[in-house]
Amino acid sequence: xxxxxxxxxxxxxxxxxxxxxxxxxxxxxxxxxxxxxxxxxxxxxxxxxxxxxxxxxxxxxxxxxxxxxxxxxxxxxxxxxxxxxxxxxxxxxxxxxxxxxxxxxxxxxxxxxxxxxxxxxxxxxxxxxxxxxxxxxxxxxxxxxxxxxxxxxxxxxxxxxxxxxxxxxxxxxxxxxxxxxxxxxxxxxxxxxxxxx
Length: 197
Ligand code: IMP
What we know:
α5 (172-178) packs across α6 (180-192). It contains 6 helices and 7 strands, in the order βαβαββααβββαα. It is globular and about 55 Å long. β5 and β6 (129-141) form a beta hairpin. The two termini are 24 Å apart. Strands 1, 2, 3, 4, 5, 6 and 7 form a 7-stranded mixed sheet that branches. The protein is α/β, with parallel strands linked by helices and 197 residues long. It has one domain (2-192): Maf protein (Alpha-Beta Complex). The structure holds inosinic acid.
């Protein structure tokens, strides 16, 4: 199968290639006239609505290109901080760009409830139907940045399933094994190749 990944992030495309290639599926980045297209994002408290809206827009753009040998993949993720009512959530990339990790740390200064979770939603359109897969990674916001790896909020996020290290201190494999995106992608993998009994 040819999986067309709707993302401007090339890193995610190569991550998906690593996952789908062993199953014989080719992953390519969704481009329109050689460029990654712009999508309008609905104002929403949830990433699922954003993901579905992006899928609808992508389907309008590709039209008949999605034949029985192709599938469209859209993924959206965000960080939901409990004491901030789920902020930044769907606005995670905008907030990261505007106030950065230091901004989040100062808003959280003195806050005892540091619970947060990353959530990911994948929409997968195949044979005329859109399937949704969700993943989450529970954890807490550290009091300072730690580690050099990963991206986004990784240096301030400590997953509950790790040993106290932030996501930026984990190896890529360690992070994938517990991450929200890893969980959602694994559900998609099981859908494509259900484990034999
Ligand atoms: P996207 O929808 O996966 O591109 O994620 C939107 C934003 O959420 C990113 O720009 C990051 O700020 C944040 N984010 C999503 N996933 C992660 C992650 O695994 N680590 C750190 N930040 C993330």
